[in-house]
Amino acid sequence: MESLPILHKINVLIHVVAGTVALLTGLMALLVSKRKQIHKDIGRVFLLFLGVAIVTALFGVFIFSRNTFLLVITVLSGYLGYSGYRALQTKSNKPVLGDIITAVAALLSVLYFVYYFKSVGMIWNPVIIYSTVGYLVLVISYDFIRYLIPAAAYANLWLYEHILKMVSAFSGLLSAFSGTVFPQYHPYSQFLPSVLGGWVAIGFMISVYRKSRLKTVTK
């Protein structure tokens, strides 16, 4: 038991370093050209360190009993990063068992989170709780519904899905960072990065749509 504080400090250090690197590489991925190989390479680094940040956050919640709110932020960012990468990797809405298991696991995790908060009372701002949980449930619901979309139609959707999910994963991580570093500005430091990320994602998707329309017209 005496070693737990030391292990917790090590876990926190790894979490902070991984989260910082994920934020920096995520920002770089947003800024560089999406058509260049460097975007893909930086994106992989972002996902790698996002994964480390997620694992260490889960250790903090389940092993060291720290900040249970991190659970839903962690699940949200982690699932969005995974699903956004899978959209790029497969470019298809064909059901894959691993993707279904991941979605169900994420959904069960967030249901546990809701149950936990109902049992101990609303110790966090309801706006943050309901918006975060609601967005995750919405994304997971879409990921099941998309299996019903005709393959030909989905061929034009996967890129928009990739953009929205990856930007949301980055903004979710940024929300966790700003909410932790600037607690005196709650709830704004918790949800404003996600709002900003939503507008950035919309901007990228509009740009992609316009470029695709221009190519169609010039053909």
Outline of this structure?
With 219 residues, the protein is mainly α. The protein contains eight helices and no strands.
- What gross morphology would you assign? globular
- Total strands: 0
**Range of strand content:** under 5%
Query: What is the terminal separation in angstroms?
Result: 69 Å
Elements, N to C (H/E)? HHHHHHHH
Rg value:
18 Å
Provide the residue-averaged pLDDT.
Answer: 84
**Biggest sheet character:** none
Number of distinct helices: 8
Class computed from helices, strands and strand pairing: mainly alpha
Low-confidence segments, ≥5 residues, pLDDT <50? none
| Helix share, percent | over 70%
3D architecture notes:
This protein has 219 residues and is mainly alpha-helical. It has a domain at 67-218. Helices cover 82% and strands 0% of the residues. It contains eight helices and no strands. The termini are far apart. The mean pLDDT is 84.
Write the layout of secondary structure elements.
Blueprint: H1 4-31, H2 37-62, H3 69-90, H4 97-120, H5 126-145, H6 151-154, H7 158-181, H8 188-218
Structural features:
219 residues; mainly alpha; 8 helices
